[in-house]
Design brief:
- With 320 residues, the chain is of the alpha/beta class.
- It has one domain (5-10, 34-85, 111-319): UDP-N-acetylmuramoyl-L-alanine:D-glutamate ligase (3-Layer(aba) Sandwich), CATH 3.40.1190.
- 39% of the residues lie in helices and 26% in strands.
- The strands form 3 sheets. Strands 4-1-9-10-11-12-13-14 form an 8-stranded mixed sheet, with helices on both faces.
- α6 (179-190) links the parallel β10 and β11.
- α1 packs across α9 (267-280), α9 runs antiparallel to α10 and α10 packs across α11 (309-319).
- The longest helix has 16 residues, at 145-160.
């Protein structure tokens, strides 16, 4: 199968709030991770997508691989490391649905991707005959300096052969040695990105400004052709057709209000999937941003990063 997009990163066990019983909090087990979430929603929206990571040989890793196949993802090249297990994270929600995370990911095999010539070569092979490669700031943050350099080198090489690179900033300070390390890595990723899907809060934390004009200036300097700035409930800002030093298309797309928000986990990831799926289908940037908003609007009304497939597709269809 010829893939339209290969998503690269880490997928973990997810424990999400599921009510209480007998005075004890109940947690629901799922599987999630920023680039994985986007890959799943892309596949559900009809995009031929694959996922690249490393997992263990434990029962949860095995179940996760089965789920990927059920979701329609191509899992060719995913290595299972004997005696290892994936990372784990726990979601805590506020009353308005905003979330915070606690992580246990030190043992995750995904952190060792591209640390060897074999792993790097496997990725390079997987990137043959695809149109897009997708990665995030988390993908960069979990890797060693050498492995990160190998990943960026491979992506730059396949980009020179026509593969387009899509980058989501997703800045998580705890993954980085310091802010300078994160800035250098993010700037290097932007320099090879064709599409940047950025969140203003993350940009503000990393660069001390999340204003669209400042974000666009950074992206223009890096030569990014298409930029999407997600701003929570505020209008999405999209700029495209970068030529002669500026973006010839610049629009804002309103975010429809959503009632009964339960959990904002994967709001940005699902937006990315909706936006990219629409762009791949030939929609303009305004229509793509609106589709991204619809996807995110469905996801945040449910617990956890990955909404049940039937529910997601039904609610997306109703929203169109």
């Amino acid at each position: 199968m010829s893939l339209q997009i290969l998503s690269i990163g880490e997928v973990m066990l997810e424990l999400a709030p599921a009510g209480e019983s007998g005075g004890k909090k109940l947690l629901a087990l799922g599987y999630a991770g920023d680039t994985y979430n986007t890959a799943v929603y892309l596949a559900r929206l009809g995009v031929t997508a694959g996922y690249f990571t490393r997992l263990g040989d434990d029962p949860y890793s095995g179940e996760l691989l089965q789920l990927m196949v059920q979701e329609g993802l191509d899992i060719t090249g995913i290595e299972q490391v004997p005696g290892r297990t994936p990372g784990l994270y726990l979601i805590a929600n506020q009353a308005n649905g905003e979330r915070s995370f606690s992580f246990w990911r030190g043992q995750s095999p995904a952190r060792e991707m591209f640390a060897t010539e074999a792993s790097t070569a496997t990725l390079e092979q997987r990137l043959q005959n695809i149109s897009y490669a997708y990665l995030s700031g988390v993908t960069l943050g979990i890797l060693t300096d050498e492995a990160r350099g190998n990943l960026l080198r491979v992506l730059a090489g396949v980009r020179a052969r026509g593969v387009k690179v899509v980058f989501d900033n997703n800045y998580r300070p705890q993954l980085w040695r310091d802010q300078d390390q994160a800035r250098n890595a993010m700037a290097a990723a932007l320099a090879i990105a064709d599409i940047a899907l950025l969140t203003d809060d993350d940009e503000a934390r990393l660069w001390n400004s999340g204003e669209p004009a400042d974000i666009l200036a950074r992206c223009a300097s890096a030569g990014v052709g298409e930029v999407v700035i997600k701003r929570g409930p505020r209008p999405v800002f999209v700029a495209a057709t970068y030529r002669d030093g500026y973006y010839h298309e610049q629009i804002q797309v309103d975010v429809p209000p959503v009632e009964s928000v339960l959990d904002t986990t994967a709001a940005g990831d699902s937006f990315n999937a909706g936006y990219l799926a629409a762009r791949f289908a030939g929609q303009n940037i305004e229509g793509a941003a609106a589709h991204g908003n619809r996807c995110a609007g469905v996801v945040i009304r449910h617990r956890g990063a990955i909404v049940e497939r039937e529910i997601f597709l039904r609610e997306i269809f109703q929203a169109i």
